[in-house]
Amino acid sequence: MLHRLQSILMSLSLPSLWSQTSTLPTSVSLFNSSPSLHGSLDALNKTLGGRLLQGHPLAFPCAHGPETDECKVVQKGYLDSLFRSTTPGGAGYVNTQWETCQTTGEGCLLDYLNPFDASPVSKDKGGCGMGSVSEYYIDVRTQQDAQAAFRFGKELKASGMPIVIKNTGHDYKGRSSAPGSLALWTHNLKNLTFNPTFRAEGCPPGNSGKTYTAVTMGAGVQWIEAYDFAETHNITLVGGSDNAVGSAGGWLQGGGHGFLSNALGLGVDRALQFKVVTPKGEYLTANACQNRDLFFALRGGGGGTFGLVLESTVLASPRVTIQAALVKLPSPSPSRLWGTMASQAVTWANEGWGGLSASDIAIYVNPRLDKEQATKSMEPLFQLAGDGVITQMLEFPSYAQFFKWFASNNVAASGVPLALSSLLVPSSALVNPESREKVVAALAKASDNTPRILVHSSAPVFFRPDPNEPTSVTERWRDSILHITIVSAWNWNSTKEEKLDAYQRVSLSRKLVEDAIGPSVRAAYLNEADVYQENHEEVFWGSNYPGLLKIKKKYDPEHLLDCWHCVGWTEESQRFKCYL
Ligand SMILES: Cc1cc2nc3c(=O)[nH]c(=O)nc-3n(C[C@H](O)[C@H](O)[C@H](O)COP(=O)(O)OP(=O)(O)OC[C@H]3O[C@@H](n4cnc5c(N)ncnc54)[C@H](O)[C@@H]3O)c2cc1C
Ligand SMILES: *[C@@H]1O[C@H](CO)[C@@H](O)[C@H](O)[C@H]1NC(C)=O
Ligand SMILES: *[C@@H]1O[C@H](CO)[C@@H](O)[C@H](O)[C@H]1NC(C)=O
Ligand SMILES: *[C@@H]1O[C@H](CO)[C@@H](O)[C@H](O)[C@H]1NC(C)=O
Ligand SMILES: *[C@@H]1O[C@H](CO)[C@@H](O)[C@H](O)[C@H]1NC(C)=O
């Protein structure tokens, strides 16, 4: 393999990392031996002034032996999503199957139960393979970087090297990695700007043009940074429930829900402007006054599809006092907790509550009620009090301060492979007690088959969107009350069959709940959806799909940006060869 790499790359110098070891990829040939690929990469590297970099898997340093400092750093950070998202080239992915090739088993994973054991990547265990980690990457700093990549994109694609956009690597569906790819790594675009009188570019000046209190975020900004920024500027930003998810990338472009989205809207509802490099190489501003079609597509059409967003501007709201209610049961009690939660879901949503619950914990926040009102409204939840039950009613001076408290107690799994499935529950399934009981029973049954279910009260029920500024998420977000995610995981060394079983379990659990909901139109949140979602076009985008497809064809006619179950994807593309 080393020989092959050298002969293909010829004049491209190999980093020392690659020549030090004999544990190079063995099972998959990531390159065809096309000389045109070498030529394109060389030319791209020249255009970039030598800034084309070679990627390698996260745990690669441990293949040299566990004693190296580089390996120790990886082992220490292995389960930390912030560490993973910061590693050069974005070698780390939060859900580790996307670092591997699931069809061949090739990869470079440590045992997440004990990352301090380096033996899984030792030579006698087969060492490290590239898996789905990008072969090359560009540390994107300017529009010109993205333009250079897209200029060579068609040639690279023809030689078997697809382009992916990689931000934090949180994607549950593997849309930010691909075997043998070139990654546009957006992590270092960290600019944050506060503008109390933001006017979208090209919108009329004077009194007829609206201004907003807004924040412009570079593509690499992550929620922990954005929330700190909000705190500094005494404002509220609506974001996700994980420190390290990106604020301006995939989260936003696919919808973006969180604790405050019931009261203040989805991420897309609050998007005011995007600066984008399209696959045709144009640098465009998309907002309500120019490139409206692209603006619409980026407000829910999904990341990695229409172009590389360099920065996103979103609405900032005034700082709000947050009432937070917490109930923690001593052991899982799905029927009891979700029974209460489902019976109150519509009322709570209309009062402005947002939150989430697992089978043993529920956390809700409200930016509208005072402490007395909030306590009264949450009485049904607090009635669950009893032996070993923890109940708390807390007040925070800002959402950022609530989040700090929340994130210090609740950290999502990272460095673990997992399968996820999502569905939206319409209010019609919850207002009628009979159908509600069916949904709760199905959830309880589903939690027997799948280790973790999260019920998110994050559909924008209280919030009403501006009808003149349409978003492209499924319209079902607007008449849904709950968003449910179902999770299953497997071991670092599981077989293909065991992985498939986990994917099938989450699908089956989802179908149990869907059956309980009855024959309403199916909908799911595309960023947390089932990798094998049936009829995904309608389920993710509803009636917006045909329009989105037209926009995809207009801005990316050569399919330089394709991703799994994305608008206009081409299933037969070689970039998907590692999906089971
Ligand atoms: C632990 C965890 C917690 C989560 N919590 C929430 C939550 O509370 N709410 C919620 O809504 N979702 C949540 N998600 C899902 C999250 O929205 C998705 O994982 C999303 O894809 C992450 O986007 P990213 O840019 O951070 O990640 P990446 O994996 O880097 O990118 C995701 C997708 O967006 C594309 N993309 C990224 N940046 C750009 C860009 N600048 N321009 C164009 N395309 C881009 C990529 O190509 C890829 O297709 C969570 C996920 C995890 C793993
Ligand atoms: C790109 O060019 C620079 C400078 O010539 C070189 O150091 C670097 O190794 C090249 N990149 C790759 C991936 O070979
Ligand atoms: C970052 O923001 C400042 C304004 O706050 C702007 O002058 C600068 O050009 C921005 N940099 C990038 C790389 O976008
Ligand atoms: C912060 O914002 C709140 C809400 O708008 C306002 O009441 C308060 O005076 C602000 N505080 C500071 C220090 O500006
Ligand atoms: C997988 O790894 C675990 C340690 O986490 C080990 O106990 C088990 O034997 C391994 N399974 C196989 C098939 O190698």
Automatic annotation (TrEMBL):
UniProt keyword annotation of Signal present: yes
Domain spans labelled FAD-binding PCMH-type: 130-319
Coiled coil: none
Entry annotated with the keyword Signal: yes
Keywords, sorted A to Z: Oxidoreductase, Signal
GO molecular function, one term: FAD binding
Cleaved signal peptide residues: 1-23
Superkingdom in the source lineage: Eukaryota
Listed Pfam families: BBE (PF08031), FAD_binding_4 (PF01565)
Family statement drawn from the similarity comment of this UniProt entry: Belongs to the oxygen-dependent FAD-linked oxidoreductase family.
Protein name: FAD-binding PCMH-type domain-containing protein
